[in-house]
Amino acid sequence: MITSIFTYFLLLFLIHLFSNEFISLQASEFVSYSTNFTTCWEIERNALLKFKEGLQDPSGRLSSWVGNYCCTWSGVGCNRQTGHVTKLDLGMPPSSFNINDPKAFDFASLQGTISPSLLDLKYLHYLDLSWNNFEQTPIPNFIGSFTKLEYLNLSYASFSGLVPPHLGNLSNLRYLDLSSQSLDQDTLVSDLNWIRGLSSLELLRIKVANLSFASASWLQAINKLPSLMELDLSSCRLHDIPASLPILNFSSIQVIDLSQNDFNSPLPGWLFNISSLVELDLSSNGFSGQIPPSIQNLNNMRDLVLYENDLSGLLPISIGNLSSLETLFLSSNQLNGTIPETTGQLKKLIMLDLSSNNWGGVVSRIHFLHLNNMKVFLLSSVKEKPLVFDVGYDWIPPFSLNLIFIKNCQMNPKFPIWLQTQKELKIVELIEVGISGYVPDWFWKLSPQIEKLSLHNNKLCGELPRSLQFSHSSIDLSVNLFEGPIPLFSGVNMLGLKNNSLSGPIPANFVDAMLHLEFMDLSENYFNGSIPSSINKLEKLEVLLLQNNELSGKIPSMNRLKNLWTLDLSNNNLFGSIPSSLCSQSPLIHLKLNGNNFYGKLSSLQNCTNLGTLGLANNQFHRGIPRWIGETLSCLSILQLRGNMFRGKIPKSLCSLPLLHVLDLGQNNFSGSIPPCLGNLSSLYHSKNSTFVSAAVAAHALVANAVAAATTVATVVSTTVASGKKGAIVAATILEGFMPFLSGMRDMEFNVKGQTLEFVNIIDLVNLIDLSSNNLEGEIPEEITKLSALGTLNLSRNQLTGNIPKKIGDLKLVETLDLSVNHLSGPIPASISSMTLLSHLNLSYNDLSGQIPLANQFQTFNDPSIYEGNPKLCGAPLPINCNAPPDEPFGKDRDESCSERLWFYIGTASGFVVGFWVVCGTLVIKRSWRHAYFRFVEEMKDMIYIFIVVKAARLQKKLRPW
Ligand SMILES: *[C@@H]1O[C@H](CO)[C@@H](O)[C@H](O)[C@H]1NC(C)=O
Ligand SMILES: *[C@@H]1O[C@H](CO)[C@@H](O)[C@H](O)[C@H]1NC(C)=O
Ligand SMILES: *[C@@H]1O[C@H](CO)[C@@H](O)[C@H](O)[C@H]1NC(C)=O
Ligand SMILES: *[C@@H]1O[C@H](CO)[C@@H](O)[C@H](O)[C@H]1NC(C)=O
């Protein structure tokens, strides 16, 4: 459901953007059919009235459809001479309703079924039913009988199913738009074979459909259309494109958009021989191979969009011959070598995106020589050896940019003084470019016009200005050497100051200056003093990250933070109990209070029913775990209580948490036995259940769609940018807000493989039970061997007795098994050698006896210390020989377990994602998906942001010249 809501809106935006330009152009050509004829043919009037009967029309758009004079009815057009109805224009322009509001859409749209009575409109030339809601019904076959039809627009009208091949009879059709808003199965499906009948077609647009059934000859069918000017089949699951096309029939084609299909083939060379092309979008297709030097034939080319493919090799020098080029998007490919200096010849260039390739060499002033019109510039290299951006210190560039993004390049270490010439900057991102020293005052003076500023991962130092005025901006100065007190940046929505040397208290007036904050990351600084109680005024705050500072005092009341869903206060000197107000309003999902001095009851968490992560490690809690945790916090997936003085038994109620996959109770005073019901922790199971698998696949699709949608989110911006609002950041956060699980619980620490590892962004993949260093006694319950998805089992340093369960080998995915320092006795079960992923084993200081297994990876465990302190053990690597014959090899073929492991990763991660977001996240996501500023993988964030901005800018450019 989330998927469809999400994609629905994205596509709504997309639509809004892309569909209009051409429609308005083209529709004007059809205006002659629309006249003000005042009589009406009765048969046609009756046909229209029947048609109206089949529709629901909540907003009364057809209220003028009464009386005799049907040619005056709204949306109806007649021929002036004959009086016949020639035009039915019932499309709803997206500008006529609030695109963000599905209810507004439902109200404004026509719904229901299309009556075949329409067939009586024998003279219909123009039919537009776009932007209505025909409720997933198929496109009626009879539309193929309107043989006079020249214009047919059925886009975004919730049609689904097979496109009737009857449409192929419309030999007069010039304009056809069947774009759709759904990526679900309900979308339109076609093999495109009927297309060849449309011999007059000038525009063919089917955005978002399932054309995967089209055979390799789909292009042959289209090549039969001599008048075709625009072809748009983006997001259509097409997978075959011919490498060569002997005869190019559609020689008047100007626009080709085949973005977001599944071609995964070499770039077809013939595309680069179509000299009429003005716009070519092949983005997000997995095209490989080189950009052909023939590219120079494209001298009408205005927009060349090739991002997100696998293009490799050099960018041809002949790129400089594309004298009409305004947009060049090459990001996220594998292009390498030096960027040709001929880019400097592209006098009309407005947007140049060279980010995320494998560039080497130097970028110099010559690359920009004649780029007087450039407004948007992006450059980054993903190579280890940095790309050098050397334009000199005193450069006066020919352009005046709105957006500059340079990442992972080597720039002059001084702050680039040439930016002082750039008076129109709105978005400045200079990330990991090796600049150091002070940020000059003139730069900060840009603040009122800055929408996004990112200088993270540099060596900038000095104090930040005490106060600056921004306006709905996103400011990221993380990972630098800034020092001094916290700055008061007003008008900031998103503030990232992570990992600097800022110090001093967080003053109460800081909050007053920043009432619009939605995302705040002050982590990894030296802030001290208490968290000001005024923080409760930040009613829009969704994410608050204060970990790794020197904050002291108690957690203030946060009962007004209605939107807070991530709170991390780890590793400070905070104390006291967890305030009961914490979840009284907020939908808290991630709560991390690790590494402080908190104590007291946990009862204040009782209302945190959305909680997915609870980190209370390394505090002073010393009571028992209350039973209700397992009963009330049903979304809990990560529970980390390590390093406290929790006592009593491990409550059985924890076993019923359906999503729990990390249970870390180490270093406490738990006593009693290990509850056998831990074997019921269902998210640590891994049964090959097809329901589960399809859910997992769905989850992957969800993520994939979200990423794919990143580019289309851009369209939101277009709406806002075009209407003069500052929309880019909002748009970026739609996606980011949608994917918070990716950001997961970064920085979570667990003891795995004998050392403390930091899991960055993969916490959702970790399946762990750690009960080490407690006073647990009794036997290891056999039931625990049912947890076939478990990756780490640490029961060390307890008082456990009895044998190691015989079936321990059923834990096939365990990589870390630590049972050391207990009183376990008996043999090491032979089945243990079937744990073929096991890489860290510790059985030392028990009372085990008999032969150490030798099969499989046990041959590689040649460190005797993992067995030491078991005087009755024998065999390699211990220096004690056994007389008994070695065990039978036990265990499976390694390939199989590898594939199982893959299975595990796919299964468990997605299972969690599905589980969490379907069961628990729904409520929150509705509120947050549009607003949440959340960073996930840094790379991803930048990429998405940039796509958005760039696309937006491209649109803006389309809409009006700069
Ligand atoms: C259309 O016809 C109506 C009724 O005769 C008249 O009031 C109106 O001005 C006409 N509109 C145009 C554009 O001719
Ligand atoms: C660029 O990539 C091509 C193809 O991937 C490779 O053959 C070539 O060696 C690379 N050149 C450089 C300079 O890395
Ligand atoms: C939990 O919520 C209930 C009802 O909203 C309220 O009466 C109760 O005081 C809350 N408990 C805590 C610990 O906040
Ligand atoms: C798979 O899991 C689902 C949901 O947990 C359950 O309804 C279904 O019966 C299971 N199917 C099999 C074959 O175990």
UniProtKB/TrEMBL annotation:
Question: Which residue ranges does the record assign to the Leucine-rich repeat-containing N-terminal plant-type domain?
Answer: 44-79
> Which key words tag this protein in UniProt?
Cell membrane, Glycoprotein, Leucine-rich repeat, Membrane, Receptor, Repeat, Signal, Transmembrane, Transmembrane helix
The record's annotation in Pfam families points to: LRR_1, LRR_8, LRRNT_2
According to the record, the signal peptide region is 1-20
Give Gene Ontology CC terms.
plasma membrane
Against PANTHER family, the record matches this protein to: LRR RECEPTOR-LIKE KINASE, LRR RECEPTOR-LIKE KINASE FAMILY PROTEIN
Family according to the record: Belongs to the RLP family.
User: Could you tell me what this protein is called?
Assistant: Leucine-rich repeat-containing N-terminal plant-type domain-containing protein
Organism encoding this protein: Rubroshorea leprosula
Biological classification of the source? Eukaryota, Viridiplantae, Streptophyta, Embryophyta, Tracheophyta
